[in-house]
Specification:
By secondary structure, the protein is α+β, with helices and mostly antiparallel strands. Among the domains are: about 120 residues, Uridine Diphospho-n-acetylenolpyruvylglucosamine Reductase, domain 3 (2-Layer Sandwich); about 200 residues, 3-Layer(aba) Sandwich (Vanillyl-alcohol Oxidase, Chain A, domain 3). Helix content is about 35%, strand content about 20%. The chain has 15 helices and 19 strands. A hairpin with a 4-residue loop joins strand 18 and strand 19. Bound molecules: flavin-adenine dinucleotide.
Length: about 450
């Protein structure tokens, strides 16, 4: 990097919070996807004013900025696609306010989701967004991707809890969006526009989220099935029953084997799938719903059924699901974690198609699914990055089917660079042009997160 830029950055952040050595930059050149792009520098702001000063510098001296939380996204949206400076939020992790009376929290954008949850312990409140990556993901990153996660079935996604944002616009201006009430119809809904925008419209420095009263009681049911169609039959009937589980998760045989070899929780390794159902609420209601769900699950011939009798047992059953992603690393060095969503009634045939296509293209595949939402995560396991074309070939055959039945090519991971090549299956013509025009209004010089699908 040129000395002039380094000097300018150090003028805002001091020497300690500007990284420029090759070794340090490599750590910020990739995220949860397989693409790598080296930045020229990484800076670590402490507050909104520093971010605004940085954006002004970028405008004056014409360099690119890419925001980054923990880099856990799975679509390559935090890699600095055109180089420039990475703005990393890991030092902005303060809680600015927890309001118990009106149930909201104001936090800096780099706050880790699980840390927020921990800080809320003892208040009787919780933040309902629970990602497979909650231990590492930041509030800012999860807002920028409108992350969903495992409890979205009952509680919804990040957007549903977003009350307000503090954002530095691409011209350096600071704005505050939203109000402290859930209802608000004054003007365009800018919270929702920033949420899911993949950091292309501005840099989020503070987030105000709604909190919920923590449920008193939890029960987890785990059913193994020898046929995927039986597991999906149970999902459909549960969803039609009127009961809304907190989570309704499905994993396939490859993941069962990966998990069992890794954490040894006693899973049935010959099962085609297991279905995990979590119910939360007051004890009587949960017991009643649990009996009904148990009866539904039984109708579809489970080869084994378990119901947790304590919080520890619930945790143990969850471990089988939560270890899924990490366990698959045992099979191959490269994992592309895909993300698509279909109407729930089409789950069984979509899963069958994924399995058929993976076989046809010679790719090892393990599936994790937020089944109640129809949200599927096929994981394509590869020997090296050069095999990416095999995963692409599967997606090219899968995507027309997904969009043809009213589904989406991404339910929660985003487009990034990973899905850019598949975008045309879902987004094109006037709708895509409109989005590009919105980007231009916010960022006419294309300074923020350049190289996205909007370029
Ligand atoms: C094991 C594992 C499990 C996962 N489970 C889930 C899951 O259950 N559900 C789910 O939805 N996702 C999941 N993910 C994906 C990922 O963790 C989420 O997308 C997460 O919200 C990203 O947060 P992050 O802080 O790592 O953001 P990053 O990856 O750093 O960034 C994500 C995007 O947000 C932008 N961004 C980051 N900070 C800011 C900011 N302050 N202002 C503006 N833009 C910003 C970046 O430019 C980028 O476009 C999982 C990932 C892994 C590795």
């Amino acid at each position: 990097m040129n000395n002039n830029l380094q000097g300018l950055l150090e003028g805002v952040f001091g020497k300690d919070r500007v990284k420029t050595s090759k070794e340090e930059l490599i750590a910020y050149s990739y995220d949860g996807f397989i693409k790598e792009c080296l930045p020229e520098a990484v800076v670590f702001p402490l507050n909104t004013e520093e971010v605004a000063a940085l954006v002004k510098l970028a405008n004056t001296h014409k360099f690119f900025l890419t925001s980054r939380g923990s880099g856990s996204n799975l679509c390559g949206s935090s890699v600095p696609k055109k180089g420039g400076v990475v703005v990393c939020f890991t030092k902005m992790e303060k809680i600015l306010e927890i309001n118990k009376e009106d149930r909201y929290a104001v936090v800096q954008a780099g706050k880790i989701l699980e840390d927020l949850q921990r800080d809320l312990e003892g208040t009787g409140l919780f933040y309902p967004i629970d990602l497979g990556s909650s231990r590492i993901a930041t509030l800012g990153g999860s807002v920028a991707l409108n992350s969903g996660g495992m409890r979205a079935l009952k509680y919804g996604v990040t957007r549903d809890y977003l009350l307000g944002l503090k954002v530095v616009l691409p011209n350096g201006e600071i704005i505050k969006t939203g109000v402290l009430t859930r209802k608000n119809v004054v003007g365009y809904d800018l919270n929702s526009l920033f949420c899911g925008s993949e950091g292309t419209l501005g840099i989020i420095t503070e987030v105000t989220v709604r909190l919920m009263v923590k449920p008193k009681f939890t029960k987890v049911l785990l059913n193994h099935y020898q046929e995927i169609k039986d597991a999906c039959g149970a999902v459909n009937e549960i969803m039609a029953s009127g009961i809304i589980p907190t989570a309704l998760e499905l994993v396939d045989n490859l993941v069962i084997n990966a998990v069992e070899d890794f954490v040894k929780v006693g899973l049935k390794k010959d099962a085609a799938a297991f279905l995990l159902v979590e119910l939360t609420g007051d004890p009587e209601q949960v017991e009643r719903d649990s009996k009904e769900i148990e009866a539904i699950c039984k109708k579809y011939n489970p080869s084994r059924s378990e119901v947790s009798k304590s919080a520890e047992e619930s945790e143990k059953l969850w471990l089988a699901r939560k270890s899924g992603f990490g366990s698959m690393a045992r099979f191959k060095p490269i994992c592309i974690a895909e993300d698509l969503t279909v109407p729930v009634s089409r789950l069984a045939e979509t899963i069958a198609l994924i399995h058929d296509l993976a076989k046809k293209h010679g790719v090892l595949q393990g599936l994790l699914a937020h089944a109640g939402d129809g949200n599927l995560h096929p994981h394509f396991l590869l020997d090296n990055k050069d095999e990416e074309h095999k995963a692409d070939a599967i997606m090219d055959e899968l995507m027309p089917f997904i969009t043809g039945i009213g589904g989406t090519i991404s339910g929660e991971h985003g487009v990034g660079v990973g899905k850019k090549k598949f975008l045309h299956y879902q987004l094109f013509g006037a709708q895509l042009e409109l989005m590009k025009r919105i980007k231009k209004i916010f960022d006419p010089e294309s300074i923020i997160n350049p190289g996205s699908y909007l370029d």
